[in-house]
Amino acid sequence: MATPWAPQPLLDPWVLSPAHLERLRKFKIQIRIANEKYLRTHKEVEWLISGFFREIFLKRPDNILQFAADYFTDPRLPNKIHMQLIKDKRVA
Length: 92
Hints:
The chain is mainly alpha-helical. The protein is 71% helix and 0% strand. The chain contains four helices and no strands. It starts with 17 loop residues before the first helix and ends with a helix.
């Protein structure tokens, strides 16, 4: 005769085991390292973000979303960033 099925206690699916936590920690470290390497090789990202924040603090727009849309779709932006990268190389 077959043994009757007995329900198993449910484990919380959102709780990670110590081994999974360690794997997650190592994964996060690797992602941060990869992101840092990417940012160091792409100075234009720094200029895009710092320029955006500089303009926000100078102009203090009421509608941040519209300001961001206008800032990042400005057809002059690529040239501004390019010129800043050239200036950066001259200083270095």
